[in-house]
Amino acid sequence: MIGVGESAIIISAVVLIFGATRIPKLARSIGEGLKEFKKALREAKETDEEGEPEKENVRESDKDTENQ
User: Fold this and answer.
1) What backbone torsions phi and psi does residue 58 show, to the nearest 5 degrees?
2) What is this structure's pTM?
């Protein structure tokens, strides 16, 4: 388990490495990435529940084969 002292050292190291001005930008980027990841997971789950989406655009060669 990480204690208070270790947390303070980690936070200090992050501030020294990235600088205080870049940390909010990094946090925002990580948050946006997680949001997009969750959105993709949700869409994949909905697609799996509904099955494969119907293909509306059928190639001309496929139409000719079906009519014969």
Assistant:
1) -100, 135
2) 0.51
Alpha-helix runs per DSSP H in 19-59: 23-50
How far is 32 from 26, CA to CA, in rounded Å?
Answer: 10
What pLDDT digit, counting tens, does each position of 30-57 carry?
999 999 999 999 999 888 877 655 555 5
Asked whether residue 4 is assigned to any structural domain, the reply reads no
Q: Are 13 and 23 in contact (CB under 8 A)?
A: no
If one counts the domains in the chain, the total is 1
As a whole number of angstroms, the distance between CA 42 and CA 35 comes to 11
- The verdict on residue 17 lying in a domain is no
Give the domain range for residue 34: 22-48
Question: Does the residue 26 lie in any domain?
Answer: yes
